[in-house]
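Design review, sub-item: ligand-bound model
Attendees: FS, YL, KQ
YL presented the inputs for the magnesium ion complex:
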Amino acid sequence: MSNLIVLGAQWGDEGKGKMVDLFSEKFDYVVRYQGGHNAGHTVYVGAQKYVLKLIPSGILRPGVQAVIGNGVVIDPAALLDEIAMLDKLGIAVEKQLAISNRAHVIFPMHRIVEKMSEARKDRTAIGTTSRGIGPAYEDKISRRGIRIADLLDTDNFRKLFAVMVEDKKTIADAFGIPWDLDTDALRTQYEGFAERIRPMVRDTSFLLRDAMNANKPVLFEGAQGTMLDIDHGTYPFVTSSSAAAGGACTGAGVPPTRIDGVVGVSKAYITRVGGGPFPTEDHTEMGERIRAAGKEFGAVTGRPRRCGWFDVPLLKYTTAVNGFDSLIITKLDVLDELETIPVCVAYKVNGKLTDEMPATNSEMESIEAVYENLPGWHCSTRGLTTLDALPAAARTYLDFLQEKTGVEVGCVSLGPERSETIIVPGSKLEKLLA
Ligand code: GDP
Ligand code: IMO
Ligand code: MG
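KQ shared the predicted structure:
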């Protein structure tokens, strides 16, 4: 049994939650390694819908140890809400969840700073989820952040908290931002949060290395997607963490040599929430049809997702960055009714074909997507459980994606539920899960 990273190959919302929940059955540990409650991972177990934000999707499997790694930023209020939501549904979260003592804490001050930054005329508005994610990571990198271990150490926490309040208030004052925080009440509230999470706080890096040494399989659950990665995504229209595969090792504190496989999750088309370049975006009625058929509205903010066509150059790029062993193609069923399906097979920048992903926003915006049109299949694929049962045009579509990206399609998802999934017999993915 392998240690596996499952992560987004596009701009997020690829269906990672569904796949991680499905695979969790075979793992002892499931770990989130970056991001925070900007993520929204939807899982259906029968008719019951769960939207997981901070807690790994593996929590829905009794006996699985869920881990929030050091690379995650935690808003304790959001975490406790999520725990309460799951508790109500009969999941014994406190028994199953370990929280890293090295993860950084999000405070309401981070949201104030973010709101200000997003509103400033001289700055690029990213279209963030407004959860304070970026400013919390800023504090981490600039070495003035407050970690979970600091939160649990009351004397130290009070000192660090006072400095953070002063810092953020200075910024708010400088930009004329209203400051309506009762910081004494806030400090007391966070001290209360500390006591509630204390029993779950651990050195999770130690926990995971121990697990790996005992040959217990670990599944790493990416949040966001590679094109939102702080280094490899469409900067500055990215999130503030390392969503790509490399982030799993730093964000969980495990050695790269212990990772056995990396799997990319991609929709059969593509979506994006928030601002930023999007070479295959479809602004026509076709884009609207996909949004309606795929129910493409954000799981966290409810914003309509921008929709477009499968982008081979983008997938080749995210494959190169992550070294995908296998691809999971989700939401193929959403294309069921289309007459023809465009797939972008190449990029032209300034009239010239290119194999590279441009680094600047202006070059990204100037990409001309070169398309090939594939025939649709005009029938429902929901509930099909073998590749042979798929209509020939759907198989051709999958073969085309596999051939053009150069990575095997190891799994196809044809609906939100666990059972609506085909794991390709003989695939590398099947072996990694065996
Ligand atoms: P994540 O952030 O990558 O976990 O993805 P989200 O949960 O934000 O968005 C994916 C959405 O698509 C969710 O509502 C899922 O229930 C749904 N979904 C996942 N796989 C499939 C699929 O194969 N077909 C359909 N129709 N819906 C799917
Ligand atoms: P999951 O894990 C899709 C986007 C936001 C915005 C940018 C920065 O569900 O796939 P942030 O609040 O992170 O600073 O916002 O990143 N974004 C996501 N888009 N899925 C997500 O998570 C996202 N998390 C952040 O819309 O464009
Ligand atoms: Mg999501």
